[in-house]
Specification:
Keywords: Coiled coil. This protein is mainly alpha-helical. It has one domain. The protein has 6 helices and no strands. It has helices spanning about 1-50, 55-130, 135-140, 155-160, 160-265, 265-360. Helix 2 (about 55-130) runs parallel beside helix 6 (about 265-360). The longest helix has about 100 residues, at about 160-265. The two termini are about 75 Å apart. About 10% of the residues are buried.
Length: about 350
């Protein structure tokens, strides 16, 4: 979180510096353009007063070419920045895809390691809780053999043969009962393992289905976004061509009017036409700048949305991995339960050995 805040502050500082630099450049450009326009206007007025038609036409052509060059430069700059934004968007989309692949790979590794064992632990817990078999601690306490309780010592049992036979019969009865319970527990474990295997396969199939469904949804969303971008690009291209054609026609009409006014010697009309053309060019430049600013804001908004989507995906994948790690801990608990069963089996073998020793005596 702290790193993200530092990155945001750094980004805001860089944006402020870029904005300040752009404002300074814009003011300098406007000042230089205003001085150049005043100089050209004075030359045109001087040529019109002197009746120098050739010089006036040359100045008008030069001014028209200069404005056309400015418009072309603005359009090239606009196209260059649009290309840069497109490249940035593609880079962010590629980064999103790579991070999604890494997250999927990490989640798949964790799921492969723990999902099967978690399902086995859950099935085992359900089976044990649903049966009448007491907990492992209760089984161990209830099946402690009488000889091990200290009720009678070795010397007391050996001095009385009837007590020894009774002790042996009791031991045999308890060992037989314990064998039956161990067999029942083993059957329950086998059944639980089968259920766990089936549950694990179903869980893996369900996880794969959900991931594939999410990938299909993201692919459809990406295709929709690409189609929208293509439609918007086509519309902007058509609009640019129409605007360029309209500007060319208006410039040709204005030039014809200026030539006619220059031939007729109508200085006032010529100045009005020149001022009108300059106003139209300034309006066209302002409109282009507004369009450029609006599109740049839109692309910036889309880039920020992509960044938020990347962060959200990271958070979701982190939550999934945390849950799977919790499941891995539950698996360890299940393994400890299985270790308890092994301990009971060892106790059973010890009781059998004790019984054989007593029978031998």
């Amino acid at each position: 979180v702290i790193e993200r805040q530092n990155l945001r502050r750094k980004h805001a500082h860089e944006m402020a510096l870029l904005k300040e630099s752009a404002d300074h450049e814009r003011r300098s450009t406007r000042s230089a353009l205003a001085e150049e326009n005043d100089r050209v206007l004075r030359q045109e007025i001087s040529a019109a007063r002197d009746g120098d038609e050739a010089k006036l036409l040359t100045l008008l052509r030069d001014e028209k070419n200069r404005h056309a060059s400015e418009i072309e430069a603005l359009e090239k700059r606009h196209q260059h920045e649009r290309d840069a934004l497109d490249a940035r968007q593609r880079e962010m989309e590629e980064r999103l895809r790579q991070e999604q692949k890494l997250a999927l790979a990490a989640a798949e590794k964790v799921k492969t390691a723990s999902l099967m064992k978690l399902s086995a632990e859950h099935a085992l817990s359900s089976t044990v809780q649903g049966s009448k078999t007491p907990p492992p601690q209760a089984i161990v306490k209830s099946k402690t053999l009488p000889f091990a309780t200290g009720r009678k010592s070795d010397s007391a049992i050996q001095s009385n043969p009837s007590d020894l036979e009774k002790e042996i019969r009791e031991l045999r009865r308890q060992v037989a009962a314990y064998k039956r319970e161990l067999e029942d527990t083993a059957q329950q474990l086998v059944l639980a393992q089968k259920q766990a295997s089936a549950s694990g396969a179903e869980a893996r199939a369900e996880v794969e289905r959900l991931w594939k469904q999410d990938l299909r949804r993201q692919k459809a969303l990406h295709v929709t976004e690409v189609e929208k971008l293509e439609e918007k690009t086509s519309a902007l291209t058509a609009e640019f061509e129409e605007r360029h054609r309209r500007i060319a026609l208006e410039s040709a009409e204005t030039l014809e009017k200026q030539l006619a006014a220059a031939k007729d010697g109508d200085e006032k009309r010529l100045l009005e036409l020149i001022s009108e053309e300059k106003a139209q060019l300034r309006a066209s430049i302002v409109n282009l700048k507004k369009l450029h600013d609006s599109e740049r804001k839109e692309w910036r908004r889309l880039s920020q949305a992509k960044s938020r989507l990347v962060e959200s995906t990271k958070f979701t994948d982190g939550a999934v991995i945390t849950k799977l790690q919790t499941a891995s801990k539950a698996k360890q608990m299940a393994e400890s339960e299985l270790a308890g069963l092994e301990e009971r089996r060892k106790l059973h073998h010890e009781h059998e050995a004790e019984l054989k020793r007593l029978e031998a005596e």
